[in-house]
Amino acid sequence: MPYTANIIGATGLVGKLLVSLLLNDSECQELHILVRRPSGFSHPKLKEHRIDFDQDLDYIKAISGHVLFSCLGTTLAQAGSKQAQRKVDYDYQLKAARAAKVNGLQNYVLVSSPYAKLHARNYYRHMKAELEVAIEKLQFGHTTILQPGGLIGKREKPRKGETMGLTVMKWLTENLPFLRKYSPIDSGLVAKAMYHAYKRPSEMTLRRVSWTQINELAQ
Q1: Strand 107-111 with 151-152, pairing
Q2: pLDDT tens digits for the chain (219 residues)?
Q3: Residue 11 φ/ψ, nearest 5 degrees
């Protein structure tokens, strides 16, 4: 069935791969991406919206169709402060989701984290859980929340200390089974899982997809 898709976070590690999957899907008639600066993508089906991420109306004008894929994110080191990180990881993604709801979209797919925990003392874990709860309250027809571990892939701007951190986590999760859900995962698998989450909808209105389930959904 023909559909129109939207992505916030299209220039990131997962987002770029998801763009490719959607543009190569003959059923995807249009792909809208929300960016702050030129993305470098070029395709007849692609509509690039350069918006002010702080302006709610910009999201409403840009988003339309059937599904919103949300894979925007940064690190504390990149953002420079907790407040700046929250703007990207929480505020902007929630603004996009609210605009999608206002505009009548029924499907929403989010990349979150296995670390999300509402009552965690850790700032990052609490923030991720807050976003999940806020998204749930919007009550889309179908909401999928993916919870991958660290993302493996080639970034245009490598994150400081990320390679070493992923190496350590990979060793820990391979040797300590109870940490398996935190295992690093290839960004391509996450992109495919996001794509299939929409193309193969669950009967549930809300589903969370763990590390092992992401591998299965990506196939």
Answers
A1: unpaired
A2: 999 999 999 999 999 999 999 999 999 999 999 999 999 999 999 999 999 999 999 999 999 999 999 999 998 989 999 999 999 999 999 999 999 999 999 999 999 998 888 888 889 899 999 999 999 999 999 999 999 987 775 655 554 545 555 454 444 455 555 555 566 779 999 999 999 999 999 899 999 999 889 999 999
A3: -100, 5
Backbone torsions φ then ψ of 12, nearest 5 degrees: -85, -175
Sheet holding 107-111, edge to edge: 46-50, 28-35, 3-8, 67-70, 107-111, 142-146, 206-209
The pair of structure tokens assigned to 44 is 């007849």
Architecture of domain 3-150+186-218: 3-Layer(aba) Sandwich (3.40)
Instruction: Read off the pTM.
Output: 0.89
For residues 159 and 124, give the distance between their C-alpha atoms in angstroms, rounded to a whole number.
Answer: 17
Helices assigned H by DSSP within 63-210:
76-79, 82-86, 93-102, 123-138, 162-175, 187-199
